[in-house]
Specification:
The complex is a heterodimer of chains A (315) and B (260). With 315 residues, chain A is an alpha/beta fold. Chain A has eleven helices and 13 strands. The longest helix of chain B is centred in the last third of the chain and has 17 residues. The chains are: A alpha/beta (315), B alpha+beta (260). Chains A and B meet through strand 3, strand 4, strand 5, strand 6 and strand 9 of A and strand 1, strand 2 and helix 2 of B.
Chain lengths: 315, 260
């Protein structure tokens, strides 16, 4: 049974968010938010899986630094109560100030969600259980590799708001068969040709990586097999790569499409103290002297100037 | 404007969730899925006089093929659309047939209805809406008889009105409107057709068997407060062989209008 978690006004929109993550936003005319509904927040560049995740666009590794979370919290304090944080890294569980940060974010009225890699579940089991049991996060994202299925199931049972993250192109569409029965919520991410993801995509002779392209083709053909088995979410990149819009009526699309990147959210890198339209944006700004509302204004301005060209950027 | 996200929190830390699909999301028909070789096979189907209605993409695609094979531009449009929508690498239709009465793979549309898909082929968007939107319905039937009661009602729940005729509660009628928009004061012609079924049922109940000579007249009057329709019916039954013999049956029915 879902319960109302928060109800708030942001600009000309009234927003309700429920305990299962459902969010209803109503507004008259063009959407005009004062602050983002959510911030995608990178808190660390430290990660020990860089050799395994050769496609990872974040460029995190064992030498990666942690972000200054006090300074970041100061910026986030300008967000509207009830807004969301999508926390990631690197490996966010590595950050020594993580729990303190989550407690302070909750005190600000923000809803924290966090994504971790499945391969970290075993080592950080106790820490993650504590975070969930103390309700410091609502949504838990787990980047899927399918190697620790029992542990994934353990965390799904512990937190029903767990979402499995898969990358179309790295994983085959039939990975959903393996996930079925473990978790009924899946976020499908598009392949990011950025950072290490760019060099992994192209072979040494700059030819396409056919394996990735073949997998993307299979996602486009066979994705509908899984529609009724999961609650499926897509990011803007996978929407373009998998041509997701073709499955919707116009009415359905208008109602469920959350908007282009930069219209309701933006990316904040606590390590480099920068912000941008998303994590692959080459154009980034220092957030040192700006409040969250000013950052959002800058992002909306950039988004408006990119409008039309954005598809080219994100595909 | 309302924007909804169903059943998930925002967990993606590098680019935001942009859409989430659960069972309530308004989607097109996604049941056409290519086989492992990337082929989408559309079999031949015959569409005759039967009273039937279909809203699934496969049957509607089969109908478009049955009604359009041999028409190159339509076939190109159909093939292109199916490839776009399903991302199949190849669309496989049945090969041409030697049989002059049946099309490829037995695909055919009764000659009286041939060409009825032309409206759908007006553009690729209209063809997409016809085949893949589950609210677009393909009705088949004939003009030698009348359609079954509520045949053209796609989904009773979406209809604005339900009418129940006293004494015929087992035959509720659903309608989107009561009055004829063009001819003010008259019962909507579709609704009038539906109510004709009730009149027939009442005549049958009274043991009246019409033959070529019978005729009846009925009048339908809508109450000022739109709560009911009164149906007055006078039916005369003549027998040619015995011209002095005539029976007259008159009755009045009341249809209660329930706004759903």
């Amino acid at each position: 049974m879902k319960e109302l978690l928060e109800a708030y006004t942001n600009g000309n929109a009234s927003v309700e968010i429920f305990s299962d993550g459902t969010r209803i936003m109503i507004h008259d005319g063009e959407l005009q938010l004062d602050t983002p509904l959510q911030v995608d927040l990178k808190i660390t560049n430290h990660c020990d899986l860089s050799e395994y995740c050769q496609w990872c666009h974040e460029g995190s590794n064992k030498e990666g630094k942690h972000g200054d979370l006090d300074k970041t919290l100061d910026k986030l304090s300008g967000m509207t109560k009830g807004s969301e944080l999508a926390i990631g890294g690197g490996n966010p569980l590595d950050h020594p100030d993580l729990i303190e940060f989550l407690i302070k974010a909750r005190a600000l009225g923000l809803i924290s969600n966090m994504t971790v890699n499945e391969l970290h579940l075993k080592r950080y089991k106790a820490q993650l259980e504590e975070i969930i049991e103390r309700k410091l996060i609502m949504g838990l994202g787990i980047s899927w590799s399918g190697k620790q299925k029992k542990l994934v199931k353990h965390f799904v049972d512990l937190n029903p708001n767990t979402v499995i993250h898969v990358i179309a192109g790295i994983q085959d569409v039939d990975c959903l068969k393996d996930i079925y029965g473990i978790c009924d919520k899946v976020l499908v991410l598009g392949y990011k040709k950025f950072g290490k993801g760019e060099s992994f995509y192209y072979n040494s002779d700059k030819a396409f990586n056919h394996e990735i392209e073949n997998k993307l083709e299979r996602w486009r053909m066979f994705l509908p097999k899984y529609f009724k088995r999961f609650t499926l979410s897509f990011d803007n990149r996978s929407i373009a790569q998998l041509k997701v819009e073709r499955f919707f009526t116009q009415e359905g699309w208008d109602r469920f499409f959350q908007g282009d990147e930069g219209t309701i959210s933006f990316y904040l890198d606590a390590v480099k103290q920068e912000f941008g339209i998303n994590s692959t944006a080459k154009l980034r700004y220092s957030f040192n002297h700006l409040g969250i509302d000013w950052m959002f204004k800058e992002i909306k301005k950039e988004q408006a100037s990119l409008n039309g060209a954005i598809a080219e950027v994100i595909v | 404007m309302t924007t909804e996200r169903h059943g998930v929190f925002e967990t993606n830390s590098s680019s935001s969730h942009s859409i989430s699909i659960d069972e309530n999301t308004m989607m097109l028909d996604t049941s056409l899925i290519p086989n492992e070789d990337g082929q989408l096979i559309i079999a031949g189907e015959s569409f005759g006089w039967e009273w039937a209605k279909y809203n699934d993409a496969r049957t509607k695609a089969q109908y478009c093929f049955a009604d359009s094979h041999g028409n190159e531009s339509r076939m190109n449009m159909l093939k292109e659309l199916l490839m776009e929508q399903t991302q199949a690498k190849e669309i496989v239709f049945p090969g041409e047939s030697e049989d002059r009465w049946n099309g490829p793979g037995g695909a055919s549309v009764d000659h009286e209805s041939s060409g009825t898909s032309s409206e759908a082929f007006a553009s690729k968007d209209s063809l997409r809406a016809f085949i893949f939107n589950m609210n677009s319905i393909l009705y088949t039937g004939n003009d030698n008889g009348s359609a079954p009661l509520n045949f053209y009602v796609a989904d009773p729940v979406t209809m604005k009105y339900k009418l129940v005729v006293v004494g015929h509660e087992d035959l509720p009628i659903y309608s989107s409107k009561i009055m004829d928009e063009d001819w003010e004061g008259n019962v909507d012609s579709n609704l009038s057709g539906y109510l004709g079924h009730i009149v027939d049922a009442e005549l049958h109940k009274q043991g009246v068997k019409g033959d070529d000579t019978w005729h009846y007249s009925n009048e339908m009057v809508v109450a000022d407060d739109m709560s009911s329709i009164t149906i007055s019916c006078k039916m005369s039954d003549f027998y040619k062989k015995h011209s002095d013999y005539e029976t007259t049956v008159s009755f009045e029915l009341k249809a209660e209008i329930i706004e759903q």
